[in-house]
Amino acid sequence: xxxxxxxxxxxxxxxxxxxxxxxxxxxxxxxxxxxxxxxxxxxxxxxxxxxxxxxxxxxxxxxxxxxxxxxxxxxxxxxxxxxxxxxxxxxxxxxxxxxxxxxxxxxxxxxxxxx
Length: 115
Prior knowledge:
Blueprint: H1 2-10, H2 16-21, H3 34-56, H4 63-91, H5 99-106
């Protein structure tokens, strides 16, 4: 028992960021180019905005206001996917779109949030 306490005391506590990285709905991305910083800043704001729009749909916002914006966002995601696919092919890097994106591309389902 005393040995366990000594080990616990000598092991550093995980940082706030390490704890967040363990969450199922988080991703850790190493930014190797300025482009990645830009995209991540956009994605972070879009994530908050899309969630807010979906939560307010039919409560304080009409479908006519929200749905065209969500469709524009979906088209932007598909366009980014297509560009990424071409870049990775030329660079010889394996690229696999997410399951949700494949559903969108196949037209077989909605882009639902993972549970």
